[in-house]
Each structure stands twice: as structure tokens, then as C-alpha cells.
Design goal:
Elements (H helix, E strand, L loop, with lengths): L2 H25 L6 H11 L15 E2 L1 H5 L13 H8 L6 H10 L9 H26 L2 H11 L3 H8 L4 H19 L6 H15 L5 H18 L3 H21 L3 H7 L1 H10 L2 H19 L4 H17 L12 H18 L12 H19 L2 H22 L11 H7 L7 E5 L10 H4 L5 E5 L5 H7 L9 E6 L4 H11 L5 E6 L3 E6 L1
Parallel strand pairs: 2-3, 2-4
Antiparallel strand pairs: 1-3, 4-6, 5-6
Helix pairs in contact: 1-6, 1-7, 2-5, 5-6, 6-7, 6-9, 9-10, 9-11, 10-12, 11-12, 11-17, 13-14, 15-17, 16-18, 18-19, 22-23
Length: about 525
Amino acid sequence: MNNRKKEIIVLSIIIVIQTIIFIVTGHFKTYIHMDEAYSLGLASYDKVEIQHNEDFYNKWHNGEYYEDYLTVNDDEIGEYKQVYENQKNDVHPPLYYLLLRLAMGFSINHYSKWPGIILNIIIWAFITIFTYLILEKILKDKRKSAILTFISGITMASLTNVIYIRMYAFSTLNILITTYLHMRLQDTEKVDIKLLIFIGISALIGSLTHYYYLFYLAMLYIIFAIKYIRQKKYKNLIYYTVTMAVAGVLSLIIFPYSIQHMFFGYRGQGVISNLTNVPKFLDSLGQYIFKLNYFAFNNIMFLILLVIIGIVIYKFTKKQDLDNNKNPYIKIILLPTLFYFILVSIASPWIELRYIMPICNLAFILVLYYFYKMMSSICNEKKTDIIMLVTLIIILISPVVFRIEPEVMFSDKKEIVQKLSSEWNIPTIYFFCSEHNRFLDDIYLFSLLDESYIAKDMEYNNENMRKLLEGKDISNGVIVFINGGQQNDDILQVLTESTEIEHCTWIKRLNACDVYYCK
């Protein structure tokens, strides 16, 4: 059996094993984040927000009313215009949403988490292939490359990336493909038109998936532009620059609203204002480093870095060269990854793992590569391999030790989902303050309920409360949601004074609101 067939078999085994792990992890996902609801709605609904419906507030609805936002119905099959229109009116480019819309077509008339998760599982199979290709170029060792590929694909960051129904898995793939193609470009002395076409296509796809991809691409361009100028390969520079320019022009022709989003939308304006806020940036950077440690390395990155720093100090005191064999590919990964990480720390509106997920695999590769190089500089190959194996085993078991789970598994919400869909499926009221609008955080729960009412900016008095519940069977009680900006106790007091309800029991704090059972 030749080496190529062996590689295909090994990668196939890795993909099968990780797919099983992804399916099991997806099975235990019990809730959806607000942005996941946006993904489903933006890909299928006729407007950006379900709240824009004229009949949304101050009217009783059944679960199907809310589920409609999360699913494709019979009368929507074959319709794709809303994918483009919704992204035009939102803040992201449209390509991922088109793929998600196609996937959602396999689950008609009812919400399911599986189309989005299965789409990401398919994407991750390609991520596995390109992770291996990148590692094999760096390490020149197929066995070690395969092992690291597998481990990097099942860290908590990777599991989160797969079960999070957003564009970040696709953006991860775009970055890995772009990186690998540039590693190929590094090996090319003359102009390779075919390779440049592939680079242009990857740049086009990446820019139509997520704007943060452009941070990574920009640094890659700078690296190669400097390289060609230093080597006086101006022909290569011209062809490379033209490739990027053509990709950019095509991207704007396909989706010209990118300019509005990046420079004049609220997200773009937020980035610009963050650039001048140094304390906020430093705080964000520190929090993202901890995120990277916790999820991308299962909480042992700092230990690995401590060992690396210790060896560097030891070699420095011994006046030994830190790296006798410079790897030509490392800076192609290192500099764009750092640049992306730093700019995302500035640009992201919230400190969320999702924003750095596209470079978590590369960060994992970089840290483990330097750890391996430092260990091999003071130990023989056998000892180094043993240390690396032990390190990888620790990474694998750390989630059990530290009780880490994928960030969007939401196991803490399993009980409330089950109860609201069964024994607590009773009239439900969301006392809603429109200044704290995060309803989509809870839309999944409302899709499970037979009767619910969103009371927008309600004046809380006995008359209004009695009118709201008029004709409703509340013998088994009422479920109450209250979001921010309101006095919960005052609302509940009016509820008990104006009805036969005697007391209210706090159930749970969700991301955007408190939930009570009142009877």
C-alpha cells in the first residue's frame, strides 16, 4: 500500500471517529443562543427580526408562530431571495446563510438543530483534511501530523465550533484553506497561475463568509508583498496583488453592502471607537487569552507555555541557539493568527469564544509545535515523543477533570426545556422591556409553548393584568418571563393582587431574563 492510500485511510478513520463524537455532542445540545436563532431566521424568514411582525407584541400566540422563524415551511421551498435581503439589512455577508438555507431544506415545517450541526460536521471533515495538510508540511511526519489533527479537532473549542449554528466553522475552513494555499505559494519560485486562481477563489469565499477573515488575509498579503519586494520578484508581486484585487472586486459586485457593514454600520463604527480605547482593548485581550486557554487547550495552555518559557530561559542562560532549523512555514501561520487575534480583541462587540474560533486550530498547532521544538532541543527523540504523548493525553482528559463542556451545549438549560414543553406548558407571559431586546435568546422556549404573550412596555396595574389574562385557564398557574430594566417584585405583586395567583417561585435566570412559576 502506497503512502497516499495510507494517508487517505488514516484521515478517513479520524473523520469517522470525530463525526461520532460530534453527533454525540450535538445530541446533548439542549438550547440555542440568540445568534443561532438569528442564523436560522436570517436564512429562512421574510425579515431580519420576528419582532418586526405587526402582531408580535400584545397578542396570544401558539408555538408554531415562533417556530416559523426557525424553520423552512412548505410554502418557502425554493425561495432564496430572503437570504440575500436579510444579510443586506443585517451585519454579515450572505454565503454561510445560503448553505444553511440549503441544509434547512431537509427539515421542513419544524425546527431542528440537526441541519445546522450536520452542515458544520461536513465542513469539519474538510477542516480535518486541511489541518493535516498544514501539519504535514510543518512537521514532515505523517504519524505525528495525524495525531495532532485528531486532537485539535476534538478540543472544546472545536466541539463548540461544530455544534454552534453559525458561520464560524465555515470561516475556520476558509482560513485553513487560505493558509495551506499560501504555504504552497511559499514553495513556488515562479508565477503559478493555477495556484493564484485557487488563492483568489478562497479569498472571495472567505470575504463572503465573515468580515473578520479579512484580518487574517490582510496579514498574509503583507507577508508575501514584503517577501516579493525583498526578493525583487516584482512580477510575482503584481500577479499576487491583481489576484487579491480581483477577488475583492468580485466580492463587492456580489455583495456591495459589505462597504456599508464594515465602515458605516454599527459594528464598523464600534470597531473604530474601540481602536482608541486602550484600557478596554488590553482587558479584552487578556480575557480572550483565557478563553483560548480554557477552550482551545482544555485549560492547560498556560502550563505548556510555562514549560516553553522555562526552556527558552535555560537555553538563553546557556547561550544556546533557540532554533537551528528555521521553519519557513511558521510565520505564514504565526503572524496572521496573532494579527487576527489582536484585531478581534479590539473589534468584537462582546468577549465570546465564537469570534476567535476560526483561529483556534492554528493556535493549537503553533503552541504544540513550539512545545515540541523546545522539548526536542533538550531531550532525545524518544523522550520528546513520550512527553508529547503524555501532554496530548492530559489535553484529552482535562475536560473531565475541570468539567469543561462546549460553550454552546447549554446543559444547564436542559431541565427548563423539558419542563416548559411538558408539565409547565401553561399560559406564559413575557413582561418585556423593549430597551433590553434579546427575545431571540428565548425564542426556542416559546416555540414549545401552546399559549404565550409578549407584553411590551406594559403599564403594570390591576386592570391591565386582569385584561391580559381574561379568558385564560390559569388553574395550573402561569409562567412569567421578565427581562432587564424592570422591577420584578413589583410586577409579580401586581400579578398576585389582580388574579387568584397566590405566590410566585423563581425558576431560573436565563441569559436575558428571569423565569418564574406563579400559582
